[in-house]
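step=predict obj=Adenylosuccinate synthetase n=431
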Amino acid sequence: MACVVIVGSQWGDEGKGKIVDLLTEQARGIVRFQGGNNAGHTLVVDGEKFILHLIPSGILHENKTCYIGNGVVVDPAVLLEELDNLAKRGIQVGPDKLRLSERAHLIMPYHMALDMAREAAKGGQAIGTTGRGIGPCYEDKAARSGIRVIDLTDPDTLKAKIEAALVEKNFLLEKHYGQEPIDAQTVTDQYLAMAERLKPYITDVALELDQLWQKGESLLFEGAQGVHLDIDHGTYPFVTSSNPSPGAVSTGAGVGSNKLTGVLGVVKAYTTRVGGGPFPTELEDEDGRYMQKVGAEFGATTGRPRRTGWLDSVVVSQAVRLCGMTGLCLTKLDVLTGLKTIKICVGYQAPDGSVLKSMPASLDLLGECKPIYEEMEGWEEDITNVRKYEDLPQACRNYLEKVSQTCGAPLSVVSVGPARDATIILDDPFA
């Protein structure tokens, strides 16, 4: 029995979906514990591409149950659309395969309207939110004025909460942002219609996960985004609105931390970031464009091109420390094939001449820091069909060993291509 957590060690988009899909075979339950449909996990199975935003990546496996925990904020329209899209591709997801926490909070139309209005008002100071209403929904949760999944089962309660919320939301939309007001009855009718389809999926997820654990079943917890988008430990305010760190498993899924047996950090072989915020190793040269093109670096949720740069071991080692990572899963190693020289950032040169080995909280200071690089020889050989570590080119292995050394954690998995089987497993977390 094992309870393994998968989290991103950079700014998201590390390839967590593939790692979760790969390890799902050994788990009975697969759990999302935070974030919302601002996350997009891309899977390639038998040449077919799947992009999931709310449903855990393990849904493509038979005899597995996927759980959306209470820490996730749920847009019911997006969830139903995902279910319909999977059904069109021959994957039927009934209540036996997907369970939705009754305590999860719902994203409402006014959350999305406020999200977009705020970003537009900020102009050049926008933080790059996806506009999906994630932040405003978490705001209402913290303010104790949110609407939860359980409210879908009580029409009178749902209507009363929507009407109460729109008193404030419409005032902001109309008076402050100059937007059209939202009609309470229209929203109520929309959500009650969706409620009829969602009711069979609603359950006490924390209780069901405990029942699985009591039976000796293994669980896999799937984080969204990355540690440096964590609202507490990330590059604030250019962060998400939740905690994509392992500590959120206990609060976001209702599972005691004493049950967790390992934390795997997914790290891309280089670094990417979507939206605004500091990025010390960002490249705007030929190497950066090469990684963006070969790696198909466009957001699965937004379609926005991702900013690209060399691997930053300061970023990853800080994530290793914060999360207690027991292993790293390195993805997209094949993208670096063909580069004559590969660089790894091993520290930051501060304006006063000192060398920083951790990211400063001050974004002003971080913006003035210069990356300190170590250069390594690249490789030309195609590695996408390699399935044993010792069969990788020597230069490739040298790079992997340097990554493990500078980031402070052993490698557990190395991905050499997008397909599920294009993977080398060095240490099985469920063994």
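step=describe
The mean pLDDT is 94.
step=end
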